[in-house]
Amino acid sequence: MEIYSFRETQKFNQNILTTMRAKTCGSFSKFEFEKSPG
């Protein structure tokens, strides 16, 4: 049960990191796109 909870927590944390990274990269890419000519 503890191992299952630990794995679920790890997966939950990984989902948060992936979401944050996607948002950060998306904002950065948008910024780069707006800043670049054309």
Give an overview in words.
With 38 residues, this protein is mainly alpha-helical. The protein is built from 1 helix and no strands. It is rod-shaped, with a radius of gyration of 16 Å. The termini are far apart. The mean pLDDT is 71.
Topology:
Elements: H1 2-35
Summarize the structure.
This protein has 38 residues and is mainly α. The protein contains one helix and no strands.
Rg for CA atoms: 16 Å
Please give the number of β-strands.
Answer: 0
Percent of sequence in beta strands: under 5%
Mean pLDDT, as a whole number?
71
Gap from first CA to last CA: 56 Å
Largest pleated sheet: none
If helices are DSSP runs of H or I spanning 4 or more residues, what is the number of helices?
Answer: 1
**Unreliable residue stretches:** none
Shape: rod-shaped
Structural class by SSE content: mainly alpha
Question: What oligomeric arrangement do these chains adopt?
Answer: single chain
Order of helices and strands: H
Key traits:
38 residues, mainly alpha
